[in-house]
Write a structure and sequence with these properties.
Elements: H1 3-26, H2 30-44
Helix pairs in contact: 1-2
């Protein structure tokens, strides 16, 4: 993997993590937070 590819992958990971954190902070109910975490784990973990 080239250095550019590693940098891009790290930036994408950071961007995705920030988006998940933002979604969790804006979730109104614990059930919605659980759903967001479930989806995130299914797709990225």
């Amino acid at each position: 993997m080239s250095m550019i590819s590693r940098i891009r992958a790290a930036r994408e990971t950071a961007r995705r993590n920030r988006a998940i954190e933002r979604a969790l902070r804006s979730a109104n109910t614990p059930a919605l937070r659980d759903e967001i975490l479930t989806i995130a784990q299914r797709h990225y973990g």
